[in-house]
Amino acid sequence: MIKTWTLFIILLLFPAFIFSQQQSNRLISKKDSLMPGMSTSIPFTLENNSAESKTYDISVATSSPSINPILAKGEFQMAPYETSVYLVPLRVGAETGQGTYSVTLNITDRNGISFAKSSKITVSGNSSLLVTALNTPEFVRAGETIRASFLLKNNGNITEKLVLGSKNAIVDNESSLVLAPNESTIITIHKVTSPELAQNEFQNLNLSVRSKNNPKENQDVYASTQVISVKPTENDIYHRLPVAVSLSFIGMQNLGVYNDGFQGEIYGKGTLDKDNKNQIEFRAVTHNPVELNTFTQYEEYFVNYKRDNFFLHLGDKTYSSSYLTEFARYGRGAEIRYDFNKVSFGGFYNHPRFFRDIKDEFNMYSTFKIRKESEISVGYLYKTPGKEEVRYGDVKLDSDAHLPYAKGKFKVSKNINLSGELAYSTTQKTDGTAYLFQADAVFKKLNGSLMYMRASPDFAGYFTNTNTFNGNIYYTITKKISVFANYMQDAKNFQRDTLLLAAPYRKYFQYGVQYRYLPSGFVIFNNGYQAYKDRLEPKQFDYYERYFKVSINQQIGVFQINLDGQLGKTDNYLTGFRGNSSFYSANLSFQKFRTSFNIFGSYAISSRYQLKNQKNLYYGARIFSRFSDKTSLSIFYQNNYMPEEYFKDRNLFELLFHQQLFPGNELDLSGRYSLQRGEIGNKDFIFSMRYTWRPNVPVQKTAEYTSLSGNISNLGIKKTEGIRLMLGSYLSITDKDGNYMFKNVIPDNYFLEIDRSTTEINDIPTQTFPAALSLINKENTFNFGLTTASNVQGHVKFLETGEKDQPDFGQLTAGKDKKKRESIIVEATNNDQTYRKICFIGEDFDFTYLRPGDWTVKVYRNGLDKRYKISTDRFQFTLQPAEIKKLSINVVKQQIEIKYQQESLKVGYNDIKKKK
Question: Measured between alpha carbons, how far is 436 from 638 in angstroms, rounded to an integer?
Answer without folding.
Answer: 40
